[in-house]
Structure formats: C-alpha cells, structure tokens
Amino acid sequence: MSMKRRFIVVDDHPLYRHGVADLIVQELHLEAVGEAGSLAEAIDLLRASKPDLAIVDISLQDKNGLDLVRTIKAEYPSVAVLVVSMHEESLYGERSISAGARGYVMKHEAPAVLLDAVKTVLEGRLAVSASLGERMLEGLAAGRRPGDPVERLSDRELEVFRLIGRGCGAAEIAGKLVLSVKTVNAYREHLKEKLNLGTAAELRKYAVEWTTGGEKA
Q: Which of these CATH numbers, 3.40.50.2300, 2.60.120.620, 3.40.1190.20, 2.60.40.10, describes 6-142?
C-alpha cells in the first residue's frame, strides 16, 4: 500500500487552517500533519513532520509569507508550496512563484479550485489561473514594464504599503513587521518617492484605495 502524501497548512487564521485541512483530508485523502500561524511555528513543523506539501498564506503573525516560501525553497526543496491568499493575484501571484511556490490560489475561489491546485502541485506542475499564467508568459517573452507603480515595490515595501492601507500607524507597522519605527518611516519616504506622492496624506489615501480594491475576499 502506498503511503499517503503529507501536508501542512500555514495561515494566521485558525478556523481557516482547520477548514482547509479538513477539506483536503476528506476530498483528497491526504494526511494532515500539522498547522502553524507564524513563520517560526512553520519552520519547527517542517523540521518535525517533513511534509510533501505546504499550503501557505501571505499574511502570517510574524513575517510575510513570501519569506517562508523562500526558506522552504532553500532548506526543504522537496516540499511543494501552494500559496492560498486573499491578496491580489496580479501582484502577489507572480511574487509567490518567483519566490519558489508552485501555485497560487485566491481564497475566494471555490473549493474545487483549491483541490485541483493541490493535485497539480503534487504532480510537479504549476497551478496558476489562466490570467496569471498569461501575465507570466508575457513577462518572460517581452520583459514587461509594469503599468501599476505598486508592482515596482519590493516585497517589504509592499507589506508596509498594505498595512498603511489597513489604517496602521508607524508604531503598529513596526510591531507587526518587527522593525523599528525609524525604519518604517524610512520605508514610508521610499514609498512616496516610488509612487510619486508628495505627502503622507496622499500616501495613506492611495494605500487605502489600493488595499480596499485589491484585498476583497
């Protein structure tokens, strides 16, 4: 008898973790070997359980999920990573694949889409939507010039920008990202420069509009 494929779920919402794990166990008959809400917990879980698949959200308790994707690719290359997130596919989808994920699924998709993606990545293939796949091919073929200036932000700049859009102040952002307030303020200045915005109020307005438009789920 062949052994069941093993998986973990890494997400900062316990109810969502449980729901995804139960769905995959019931429908695909894989073995759930653990759940985690932070990068630190996930690393411990990977070391202890040695799964075949890690389902990872972008937003974790202590780090950006892309940091975990890169860590898995570097230290656990045999583990397939599927990112399942509420965040805008057009930005985070490509970043996730570049970081080492084999697939990206939006949380608002039907359960069947998630299940198909799980099967696809475990077969060693890429699981992305048709639109994301097309964007990636266009980028490879022509060296795409992003139309949205937000696409030019680094991963950390994008995380700060997203938290500004959620109404977080510098001190709160610093706490969430484990940075100093001085560093957060430096990121805010970089963001204004990259996005061609003159004031902090303009940055907040742009961030709120972008975040509420791109994170509905």
A: 3.40.50.2300
Residue 91 or residue 190, greater confidence? 190
Cut 0.85: pTM above it: no
| pLDDT, mean of residues 137-147 | 52
- For every residue of the chain, DSSP letters joined together read -PPPPEEEEE-S-HHHHHHHHHHHHHHH--EEEEEESSHHHHHHHHHHH--SEEEE-SB-SSSBHHHHHHHHHHH-TTSEEEEEESS-IIIIIHHHHHHT-SEEEETTS-HHHHHHHHHHHHTT--B--HHHHHHHHHHHHH----SSGGGGS-HHHHHHHHHHHTT--HHHHHHHHT--HHHHHHHHHHHHHHTT--SHHHHHHHHHHHHHHH---
CATH class of 149-214: mainly alpha
